[in-house]
Amino acid sequence: MNLALWICAGLLAVVALTGGISKTFVPREKLAAAPGGGWTEDTRAGFVKALGALEILAAVGLILPAVVDIAPVMVPVTALCWILLMIGAMITHGRRGEFQFVILNLAYLLLAAFIAWGRFGPGSFTG
């Protein structure tokens, strides 16, 4: 169980880091031209960058607290926050009719739900 939770956290951290870096450092116009990036045309650049920063923090929060054994409860808390972020992403893509991205975000949400369940429950760092 512990290995599965680490693998899922690592995969989700890579997804979060990749998305976060692109939203933070790639110009909004270029993001808008990418598949699934059309939503950025409807928002301010600062909002896109803020989402990117949150995703980078999520990547850190999914791994670092457990690795350094400082506040490891932040791993499942971060996973819960990621679930909320994915609900917002699913709503945004759903409104735009981009259902392939809704499914992708649902997969990320399910990974985060597994991490939150596992790290709050049977795979907790405190037990």
From TrEMBL:
<dbReference type="InterPro" id="IPR032808">
    <property type="entry name" value="DoxX"/>
</dbReference>
<feature type="transmembrane region" description="Helical">
    <location>
        <begin position="99"/>
        <end position="120"/>
    </location>
</feature>
<keyword id="KW-1133">Transmembrane helix</keyword>
<keyword id="KW-0472">Membrane</keyword>
<feature type="transmembrane region" description="Helical">
    <location>
        <begin position="56"/>
        <end position="87"/>
    </location>
</feature>
<dbReference type="Pfam" id="PF13564">
    <property type="entry name" value="DoxX_2"/>
</dbReference>
<protein>
    <submittedName>
        <fullName>DoxX family protein</fullName>
    </submittedName>
</protein>
<keyword id="KW-0812">Transmembrane</keyword>
